Amino acid sequence: MADLLRLALVGCGRQMQQNLFPFLQRIRGHQVVACVDPDLSLAADVQSLAGGATCASSVDDLDLETVDAAVLAVPPEPSYRLVRQLAESGIDCFVEKPAGPSTPALQDLEHVVRRSGRHVQVGFNFRYAETLQRLHELSEEIRATPCSVTVDFYSRHPSAPQWGVDTTLEAWIRHNGVHALDLARWFTPSPVVQLDAHAIGDADRFQVNLFLRHHDGSLSTLRMGNHVKRFLVGVTVQGMDGSRYSAPSLERVTLELSDGLPYGQELHATRNLDHGWGRSGFGPELQAFVDACAGQQSEPHTGGRAPVKGVPSISDALAASALCDRVMAELDAAATNGLGYLTDSVRASA
Question: Gfo/Idh/MocA-like oxidoreductase N-terminal domain: which residues (predicted)?
């Protein structure tokens, strides 16, 4: 029998306990060997479920010779430092987005990871959500030519500044809205050449609309914010052939238009009995990480290895961070509204 992948869980708070560890328990081929958190009571909570794992307050307390890979769920600043340390020590890493506190930090991390040859995957879990995967497959042909993509992403949190970011708006965009930017890049892989940003609301409760123009002429519209009562993700893809595929939520995919005419056929519906495995994407993304690490173990380590194809990497986190920078620059330049004012206003409808 092949050796089990030896995993360290770093950061044992809410994200690890609610969204990551429960799905890791359903994946074969690995063994949790360490639970790490500055709050040892949190590490002990996960350790009690892991069986046979050691408990530590710092990665520095671990014998890294006993660890093959790490799953990290910590704030952006320690994410950057820890992934850097672990990759340089020959440890593969799964790290929750945004994976670093700034674009320069992620640029540095990209260089470190590339030199190390380690597999580092970033937790953009919605790429793995069953419904969005199916929409991505069904719309492949129309996305091969210029198309229009709309991403809806609504979440109440964060609703206050966090993790060293001074405003709620910026904290939300960098730590949650970044998912929508990643989805826009995934559905329309052509480079972004123009970005316009607009916001309404107040300092802690807002709607944000982003408009991205891509090099191939495609357009992405992102509608997002924290002004809602519940979480929602939806994506629509409209092609130049008159078709429009829609996933209005994480439950189903429909063909709304065919040749420009109303159609309304349901093409996919999520299963209700998988305990959330496919709906959120957390299960499939962790399965992809374990599989990729196992594949790396079976190959000779030569350094400078290219990222695993199709897996969100530090390069994807870097690109998303650069778009966040541009969003904030657009909003800040016009006092949270990227609108260009007309010389003479156009009167409203009577």
Answer: 6-124
CATH of domain 130-275: 3.30.360.10
C-alpha distances (whole Å) from 49 to each of 12, 21, 32, 165 are: 12, 9, 10, 34
Q: Which residues, 6+ apart, have CB-to-CB distance to 149 below 8 Å?
A: 143, 184, 187, 188, 218, 219, 220, 221, 235, 236, 237, 238
- CA 2 – CA 12 distance, rounded (Å): 28
5-126+281-311 and 130-275: identical CATH topology: no
Q: What is the pLDDT of residues 164-223, one digit of tens each?
A: 899 999 999 999 999 999 999 999 989 999 999 999 999 899 999 999 999 999 999 999
Alpha helices in the chain (DSSP H): 14-15, 21-24, 40-50, 76-88, 103-116, 130-138, 140-143, 168-172, 178-187, 277-280, 282-297, 314-333
Query: Which class for 300: exposed (0-12), middle (13-18), buried (19 or more C-beta within 10 A)?
Result: exposed
Closest CA to 8 of 78, 75, 58: 58
Question: Is 270 in contact with 279 (CB distance < 8 Å)?
Answer: yes
The one-letter code for the residue type at 261 is L
- Kindly report the length of the chain: 350
The per-residue pLDDT for range 295-327, each reduced to its tens digit, is 876 555 545 555 566 899 999 999 999 999 999
- Looking at the predicted structure, is the pLDDT value of residue 338 above 50? no
User: What percentage of the chain carries pLDDT values higher than 70?
Assistant: 90
Q: Are 5 and 293 a contacting pair, CB within 8 Å? A: yes
* 98, 174 Cβ separation under 8 angstroms: yes
Report which of residues 253 and 278 the model is more confident about.
Answer: 253
Token output for 41: 């009571």
- Residue 39 DSSP class: S
d(CA 186, CA 265): 24
